[in-house]
Amino acid sequence: MANLGKPGVVSTTPDAPATIDPNRPSAARIYDAFLGGTHNFAADRAVAARAVELLPEIPLIVRANRAFLRRAVRYATDHGICQFLDLGSGIPAEGNVHEVARSTTPDARVVYVDIDPTAVLYGRHVLGDDPHAAVVHGDLQQPGVLLDEPEVRDLLDLSRPIAVLMIAVLHFVPDSPALDSAMVAYREAVVPGSHLAISHVTAEARPELVDSVTDLYNRTGTPLVPRAHRQVTRFFDGWRLAAPGLVPVPEWRPAAGDLRLPEAIASVSLAGVGVK
Ligand SMILES: C[S@@+](CC[C@H](N)C(=O)[O-])C[C@H]1O[C@@H](n2cnc3c(N)ncnc32)[C@H](O)[C@@H]1O
Hints:
Blueprint: H1 7-11, H2 27-34, H3 42-54, H4 58-78, E1 83-87, H5 97-104, E2 109-114, H6 117-127, E3 133-137, H7 143-147, H8 150-155, E4 163-167, H9 177-189, E5 195-201, H10 207-219, H11 229-234, E6 240-241, E7 247-248, H12 263-266, E8 269-275
Parallel strand pairs: 1-2, 1-4, 2-3, 4-5
Antiparallel strand pairs: 5-8, 6-8, 7-8
Helix pairs in contact: 2-3, 3-10, 4-5
The site of S-adenosylmethionine has 23 residues, from α2, α4 and β2.
């Protein structure tokens, strides 16, 4: 396991796709800290700790998001989908997409994509020589580059339905023509029957809970872009939103045993699955 307590170990690893700067907080490592992971540095833990002071339920919100990820993957496998493109996949944590998918679909194939070198490095470590899963270092706003990566071409058959996952990532991507055209490109790249799963932070219902955390992220170099319900809905243009639509994360097809959150806390992130 990569030891992020010793920055030199990581930055000299030949597989590292880019330099890891332990002094600059990263969204991936802050999220890992919320989950109680060990792939984070003091700078990440400081932001995570301050965020939890501002909104003590953040670790629960993050766990509810991971539960949505599991449900979205199972929803896809229930519909016969056995290929996944996980954009903004993060640092591996309990219940990674390939693990959840293979619990019912042993031949599931997964390509993970992340812009953060720590996520890519540890992701590759976790996968080892898994022939049916890979981690690609890249920006989801560059679908042309990503879909042409050898790992994507080898593992994903775009003539059959796939699930594109954008779980807790788009709120780190500001509005731009590049983002708009990327959303169109992913939709056009996949065949009917494919899924698009999104979860996303929103400040619309309870700005008093979200605004201070947004300010914190923005001040620490990891811009956070909460969006209103109608803005997140736009990401599903051209997809049919499966029931129950775009709803607070814990309310999207809750499963037995999943965490329940107070309504106000649940309202700070939205989740939905679109079907092409
Ligand atoms: C909060 S984590 C979510 C991880 C995982 N999807 C989950 O829900 O548990 C967000 C991830 O998105 C990644 N990310 C942010 N912007 C990205 C981009 N433009 N392209 C690819 N990944 C991105 C970050 O590096 C981080 O690992």
